[in-house]
């Protein structure tokens, strides 16, 4: 795998991890009432779910690439449209100054570590943003060469580690990061950058050759 490919994937994956979503909402609900350990159990569930997303994506895309160029074209265009839609939505929210974090409320009941892990796993496994990322963006980084499956799981590992670092930092420094996450200026800049990048990747995906 070329270093430029790894760097590009790391950049887009980092934006996805840092953008507001269900994972951050769960951490914000868990840590205030159940403590840091339960928060880390949430993160462990996030990481486990990434490998489920990755395995399904790699298997499904491999079948599409090998057996049906027409099916690949359909999935490619749907994925490109979705990425551009996410980008446009992020730019619209950045322009209007909307924030998805203002209505976060703490959880009322304590969580066991197993329950926190399962909550984290299901939250990430059922997260449509992550599902569509692996369906839409992954074809840009998977090559049909010897060792492609191993290289693809390296990307899954990178994505999961970015998730681990980001949300671990949120847990350890939650009081400070919670203020930053609710800051409207921070949200608008993050959404603006995310919007531009996702539209660019959508355009690139639309021209991708199987």
Question: What does this protein structure show overall?
Answer:
- This protein is 80% helix and 0% strand.
- The chain has one domain (21-206).
- The protein starts with a helix and ends with a helix.
- With 210 residues, the protein is mainly α.
Q: Give unreliable regions as ranges.
A: 99-108
Strand content: under 5%
Helical content (DSSP H or I, runs of 4+): over 70%
Number of strands: 0
Our measurement of the CA-to-CA distance between the termini, rounded to an integer number of angstroms, reads 18 Å
Shape: globular
Mean pLDDT: 76
The main sheet comes to: none
| Overall tally of domains | 1
* Count of discrete alpha- or pi-helical segments spanning 4 or more residues: 8
Q: Secondary-structure element order, as H and E?
A: HHHHHHHH
Radius of gyration: 18 Å
Helix/strand class: mainly alpha
